[in-house]
Design goal:
It comes from Hungatella hominis. This protein is α+β, with helices and mostly antiparallel strands and 236 residues long. It starts with a strand and ends in a 9-residue tail after the last strand.
């Protein structure tokens, strides 16, 4: 039986890397008494995978992991079991039973929402002008940037990978491409904006939070971005 779990990551645990988070959940499954399925072979391991590793130092309200279980009472019970053993800063928010043929979350990640807020003491003197410039920056036909890859550096147009970029109050909201094929980090967008306007924000100016992760149930031309928790969900 396949299960998709949504959880949040807040506070000091934002400095815990992806591999350690994975090890933590493996132990949490045992402590919570989850009847998780193990792989076969000489070195059995829990069948568990994460949708999209979160960058170090980022908080999140929308992380996803997939597991397989031999049995379970209900999604509500599993959420309670896991939250009873969670450390401060990690909370299980949702649990979804998936159809048997559902693809794993990692393979269908297509986009993610982020909120950026200025750290205390890092707010530009003229925030209104900063946001007005950001709007003008986003309205360009092309947004050229240099992106570092495993093979070196390459120039790319960020515009097709930015689905939404808005400001509200004192924060910036963006919906961007995510996944193994075209993963766009909010930091790269803001660094490119700095170069475009000819000024630089102070180092570590932003608190960045991932709000949601989406899969695409449409195609490249006609996207239909749906939260991962709702894709492949078993209809009862």
């Amino acid at each position: 039986m396949k299960v998709r779990i949504k959880f949040s990551k807040q506070g000091p645990v934002k400095f815990i890397g992806h591999l350690d988070v994975m090890r933590y959940f493996q132990k949490a499954m045992r402590r919570a008494g989850i009847d998780i399925k193990y792989s076969e072979g000489f070195s059995p391991h829990q069948i568990m995978s994460f949708a999209a590793p979160l960058g170090l130092g980022l908080t999140s309200n929308g992380e996803y992991m997939d597991i397989e279980v031999n049995s379970m009472n209900s999604c509500e019970t599993m959420v309670k079991q896991l939250n009873a053993v969670m450390v401060e800063g990690i909370e299980v928010l949702e649990c979804h039973k998936l159809e048997d043929n559902a693809k794993n979350a990692m393979s269908i990640v297509a986009a993610a929402d982020y909120t950026l807020t200025f750290r205390e003491g890092k707010v530009p003197e003229n925030l209104e002008a900063f946001f007005a410039g950001l709007k003008e920056f986003y309205q360009q036909d092309q947004i050229l940037a240099v992106k570092k890859t495993k093979k070196g550096e390459r120039e790319m147009d960020l515009k097709p990978a930015i689905y939404e970029l808005t400001t509200e109050g004192d924060h910036i909201f963006m919906k961007v491409s995510a996944g193994s094929q075209d993963n766009l980090k909010p930091e790269l967008i803001m660094e490119t904006y700095d170069r475009w306007r000819g000024e630089s924000c102070p180092e570590f100016a932003f608190l960045i939070q991932r709000e949601e992760v989406y899969g695409n149930t449409g195609d490249e031309e006609h996207r239909n971005l749906v939260p991962l928790g709702l894709i492949g969900e078993e209809v009862e």
